[in-house]
């Protein structure tokens, strides 16, 4: 199924109804091990401002691209730009009657893959500006609103489906907030159904562990699951099962009036450390669940992604697009 989209390149419009507050961020060091990941002189740079709610960044074609969910727009920014530019509008609600894209990824062919809130599906942006639906239903029922995704080396897409993008008075067709996998067959396989508000999703460097950020305001946390060798095969796709779910890091105690946000988007570096948004900004956590430190943004922070040569972390923090140079590289564009 394809639907025509509109590709634009334009200067960033004035989105915010109120003046953008000054940025007030810092890097919090809780363990000396952080010094091997973030240099002591590392600084947070503000690249662009004025967004409604920035989300879902991914590095593609020499620039960072990211969603502004309420504005139904994908923006882009590259070195030398004085402002972000519109890359895609509409991005997730083709009739402009719902929210836009959220999580973004890039497949092995370089195609942009989007979690489309308004269309309630995973879609691929084609070269002619149209969208191809890759998954929009489970067991004949429409998804809630796919939120974030990660693509493995075999091209299998893992994604989360909380209800955040459902319009007012739109009823969910599924009785749970699922985590799914979909391959070339287009058939979504349910991996996890017992987590309320699954959000960000990532894979370990060896792709044998699935990480899940849970944005439940009563229990925000990072979960880890083993991807077992016991496979579910459908039309040639091999989908591994997610087993042995456990809490890797409990972020609930970090919440405070001065540390906004919940566990949301995440990425993994080549050493296996998890860079997850959470209370206060971006939390850097080891694969064993030890909190090494945080990039404090002063805002509720949606997501992050590695870019440039892999050694820069780009951060979408409410109305801001930020970056910090790192001493470690991310695991890849699709992740």
Walk me through the structure.
- The protein is an all-beta fold and 335 residues long.
- The protein has a single domain, classed as TolB, C-terminal domain (Neuraminidase, 6 Propeller), CATH 2.120.10.
- Helix content is 0%, strand content 46%.
- It contains no helices and 28 strands.
- The strands form seven sheets. The chain has a five-stranded antiparallel beta sheet with strand order 1-11-10-9-8, with no helix packed on it. Strands 2-25-24-23-22 form a five-stranded antiparallel beta sheet, with no helix packed on it.
- It is globular.
- The N terminus is likely disordered.
Topology:
Layout lengths: L1 E3 L21 E4 L15 E4 L5 E7 L2 E6 L4 E5 L7 E4 L12 E6 L5 E5 L4 E5 L4 E6 L1 E2 L2 E2 L6 E3 L5 E5 L16 E5 L5 E5 L5 E6 L5 E6 L6 E14 L2 E14 L15 E3 L5 E5 L2 E5 L5 E6 L6 E5 L4 E6 L2 E6 L10
Antiparallel strand pairs: 1-11, 2-25, 3-28, 4-5, 5-6, 6-7, 8-9, 9-10, 10-11, 12-13, 14-15, 15-16, 16-17, 18-19, 19-20, 20-21, 22-23, 23-24, 24-25, 26-27, 27-28
Annotation field: number of helices: 0
Strand content is over 45%
Q: Using the alpha-carbon principal axes, give the shape.
A: globular
Spatial order of strands in the largest sheet: 1-11-10-9-8
CATH topology (level 3) name: Neuraminidase
Tally of strands: 28
Q: Which CATH class applies here? A: Mainly Beta
CATH architecture: 6 Propeller
Chain-averaged pLDDT:
92
| Number of domain modules | 1
Low-confidence stretches: 1-17
Helix content: under 10%
Q: State the secondary-structure class.
A: mainly beta
Q: Which features characterize this protein?
A:
335 residues; Neuraminidase; five-stranded antiparallel sheet; 28 strands
